[in-house]
Amino acid sequence: MEKLLNPDFGVMALTIVNFLLLVWLLHKFAWKSIIGALEKREKQIADDKAAAAQARQEAQNIKAELDAKLQHIAEQAAQKMQEAVALGNAQREQLLTESRQQADRLIEQAKAQIEAEKNKALADVREQVVNTALLAAVKVTQQQMNKESAEKVVDEVLREVKSAGSARA
Amino acid sequence: MEVSETLAHHILDHDFGVMFGTLHLPITAHTVTMFCISIVLLVMGILMARQGKSGFSRLMHTLGEEYVAFMRDGIVVPGMGAEGKTFVSYFCTLFLFILVSNLAGLIPQMKTITSNIAITGGLALCSGALIVYCGIKFHGVWGFVKTFVPGGTPWWLVPLIFPLEVVSLLIRVCVLAIRLFANMISGHMVLLSLLLIVFIIGQLSKMAGVGTALPAMGLEIAMTLLELLVAFLQAYVFTLLTSIYAGLVIHSH
Prior knowledge:
The complex is a heterodimer.
Chain A: H1 9-142, H2 147-168
Chain B: H1 3-11, E1 18-20, E2 23-25, H2 29-49, H3 55-80, H4 88-104, H5 117-146, H6 158-204, H7 206-250
Helix pairs in contact in B: 1-6, 2-3, 2-4, 3-4, 3-7, 4-7, 5-6, 5-7, 6-7
């Protein structure tokens, strides 16, 4: 059993030679190309990540710019809306005032017209009353007149009535 | 044959005594297994490096890339820093070689070559040489010698500290060899001992031997599974410690 702990230096030397040769051969025929492919892919991934990060940054910048524009547009729209509302209110007030003035004017005109018609009607009534009173007076006085004077008075009255009728027409 | 002799017969290396002129070539069961493992690893490496279009080729290449990435990002760079990337090939080979050597003993008619102190010693010497090479490469010869004396050490302590640090480095290398050797041989001894129990008891009483066979086989299976775990663990530990020791030399102040 003590042989277990006594190293064979020939085997040890052969192990060293074999192992170093294996390291060299595997480095030449295997690990070198695998490491190369791995590093190439890692570089490509790193480049892709950098490009993605740059694209993301650019997208964020564009988004921020668009947000700012949208904010500006919203502010402008709100301002325009306020102005339009103010203008609408002013126009409404103006229209209301004008309508009120026109209505007042029409009412005044109607009142004046009504007054004029009333006065005219009153004048007509007064004239009719006078005429009727005159006819009545004539008829009263007729009883005291002879035939000739009566006919004269009648004719005169008829003329007057006729002239009054034509004047009214 | 005594039990200890039987155990030794199964575990010890057998020299075929090949002579090349006057030179004795150490062609033993373990070295032949080592050559076989090296050839298998070389073929595997070439298959992994190929970038063919077939499914198998792509699978092998992906496995190779994943393995190299694991070694580089999981062992070499954490242990040695970015400077260690130059030595990724060495660590990739070291881990695979130790792992396959550890597992080879589980295949019938194959030997666990890492249960031979000469082979683990050879691997540890390679790692030791790498550690020294790293020290000289990154600090120069005189700079590397100076790393054996920690900064701030009083001058009168230097004659004491310097040999201690040199011995510490040598011990680290020796411990690498002994740890791997001891772990692998102990597992094999337990497996063989469990088998021998059946035959020893069988010689006393055949019925008792048959009765012992079933629990012994259960223990054998459990121990084999443990051996599988130990094979991976020891390969990982050897590689990781090599990178850490090299890293300590590279980044010593």
